[in-house]
User: Fold this.
Amino acid sequence: MPPTTQTWRRPGKGAQVGGTTGAERGWPRVSPTATFWLLCLSAIGTFVAQGLLYPALPLYLTEELGTSKAVAGLVVSSLAVAAVASRPWAGSFIDRRGRRPLLLAGPLVVAVTSAGLLSVRSVWMVLACRLVQGLGGSLTYSAASAIAADVAPEDRRARYLARFSLCFYIGFALGPFVAESLISGPGFAAVWWCVALFS
Assistant:
């Protein structure tokens, strides 16, 4: 089947993306440009949350739960395992059901599991939370990237996607700084709450 030409108007008024209208995809009735910048803000928040966890989790695991540094490293990196495993399924789901369900579900999953860190007291529970966070992050990234590609003007798509990718680096740059400030002040509970909030 030949690829479908993408033309953009306001969603719900004839915008064609992959053969379906914006309304069928479940997008709000906002302009493509506004949608793009909202996605950028969302991406920054999501990856600030991830950046918060990278310095905080190893310290929490070694200092509060008494695990070895090697185990702490495995727990932290388990997010990537879950993300890699779930990404193909996420892409297939997006093609069949649209972007919005995963864009909403992903941050919610990360927020709930991050708040769950407030009550866990074993390395296995932290590992479970981390794996589910990997799933949530994968859903968010897959859906947001697909929408960013959809709304980017065809003649400036590379420029728009480059800007979108910057949001992830901005988030990762800010997250560790905020995490260290919180750990040395209010403590780990404040970090978990901030992760849930930014997600």
In short: The first helix runs from residue 22 to 25. Residues 32-198 form a domain with the Growth Hormone; Chain: A; fold (CATH 1.20.1250.20). The two ends are 38 Å apart (CA to CA). The CA atoms of residues 7 and 16 lie 6 Å apart.
